[in-house]
Amino acid sequence: MDFQMSKTKENLARSFAAECQEGARYQFLAQMAQQEGYQYMSMIIRTLAHNEMAHAKQFFQKIGELGGQNVQNIDISAGYPYKTGTLQETLTFEAHNEQMSSDSIYPKFADIARDEGFKEVGELFDMVSKVEKTHQRTLEKLAESLKSNALYKSNSGEQAFKCDECGTIILGKSAPKTCPLCKMGQGYFRIDFSIN
Ligand SMILES: [Fe+2]
Ligand SMILES: [Fe+2]
């Protein structure tokens, strides 16, 4: 199928817009976390924002690659999230957005791309979809930990808490209020939020 006439062109443009907005919203969220003293959380969210910009770049470049000089403005009509709330509400809300992207929107776009004969675009949507699933889990864990007050407390005996500023490791049931070495606040300590 001719790329200019394809649904895939529009889907790539929609996805580019969505990833840019998500990247921006995560920057705002990272600022909110930082202002509330959750430095390590803020860093995790900044990494998510960075990932979204990397996805945006791939979608943008794909449009140029397939459309060449023929692509100028692309009209898209789609809904984008504009909800605001507390830190915890926003984490939960964004986890839901990630779930929508990874479980429904990107798999659908991947199928359409393959139907239209753009196999590599299908693969791109599939790969991004997998990352969005890990984003969903990370945001869910952050929201849960914040809610249950478990960000700096171990629920299973002693644990290693690491100060992200100076690297000091404290073994205990909770992170200290301030780091004994660099004197930074508790918000600099991290527990591992990597996916399991
Ligand atoms: Fe993304
Ligand atoms: Fe994401």
In short:
By secondary structure, the protein is mainly alpha-helical. Helix content is 59%, strand content 6%.
Task: Describe the secondary-structure layout.
Elements: H1 7-35, H2 39-67, H3 87-115, H4 119-147, E1 159-163, E2 169-172, E3 189-190
Antiparallel strand pairs: 1-2, 1-3
The chain binds fe (ii) ion (2 copies).
Could you characterize what this model shows?
With 196 residues, the protein is mainly alpha-helical. The protein folds into two domains: 3-147, Ferritin, core subunit, four-helix bundle (Ferritin); 159-190, Rubrerythrin, domain 2 (Single Sheet). Helix content is 59%, strand content 6%. It contains four helices and three strands; from the N terminus they run ααααβββ. It has a three-stranded antiparallel β-sheet with strand order 2-1-3. α1 packs antiparallel against α3, α2 packs antiparallel against α4 and α3 packs antiparallel against α4. The longest helix has 29 residues, at 7-35. The chain is elongated. The relative contact order is 0.13. The model has no long low-confidence stretch (mean pLDDT 93). One fe (ii) ion (FE2) binds at residues 22, 48, 52, 98, 132, 135. One fe (ii) ion (FE2) binds at residues 19, 22, 51-52, 55, 128, 132.
Features:
mainly alpha, 3 strands, Rubrerythrin, domain 2, elongated, binds fe (ii) ion, 196 residues, three-stranded antiparallel sheet
Bound molecules: fe (ii) ion
User: How many helices does DSSP assign?
Assistant: 4
Name given to the CATH homologous superfamily of the largest domain: Ferritin, core subunit, four-helix bundle
Rg for CA atoms = 20 Å
